[in-house]
Specification:
Length: 156
């Protein structure tokens, strides 16, 4: 088995570079691989998504595994912004606490061992990007999470 790791635009992989040069030597049907990648990443439209294409060189079969887009990409999409705040004067955007928890639940590459710690990881990204949560600073929400104020949202 041979694995090719790529970063693609969600739902918009194409038969050009970086995909074609990596797959061509293995004589795999590139258009089938592109179609499978686009099908599996369509929910991440507008985001950069890590993808692994695992090829069996013997029978030319392949498998596509999709990773989690970077947390910052998901936050930008949910907040409807192009980029985080360059200066910390005004917030770059705002998301709801419900969306924050939903982002944490989607993360497959979290270092957190439980949802609460993953939520705090996402809050750290919000903090560095200048994104507020329900109009409050990420620091304030981290304090509330530590105090257990949002435990009901993270149950189950």
């Amino acid at each position: 088995m041979k694995t090719i790791n790529l970063i693609v635009d969600g739902g918009k992989a194409s038969a050009g570079p970086p995909l074609a040069p990596a797959l061509a030597p293995m004589k795999v049907n590139i258009s089938q691989v592109v179609a499978k990648i686009n099908e599996k990443t369509k929910d991440f439209a507008g985001m950069k998504v890590p993808v692994a294409v695992i090829v069996n060189p013997k029978d030319k079969s392949f498998e596509v595994e999709v990773g989690s887009p970077p947390t910052g990409e998901i936050i930008k999409k949910e907040a409807g912004i192009e980029k985080g705040a360059g200066n910390r004067e005004a917030p770059a955007g705002n998301i709801s606490i419900d969306k924050l928890v939903a982002i944490a639940k989607k993360k497959s590459n979290s270092l957190g061992t439980e949802l609460k710690s993953t939520v705090k990881e996402v809050l750290g990204s919000c903090l560095s990007m200048g994104v507020t949560i329900d109009g409050k600073s990420a620091r304030e929400i981290i304090r509330e999470v530590d105090e257990g104020k949002h435990d009901s949202l993270m149950a189950g």
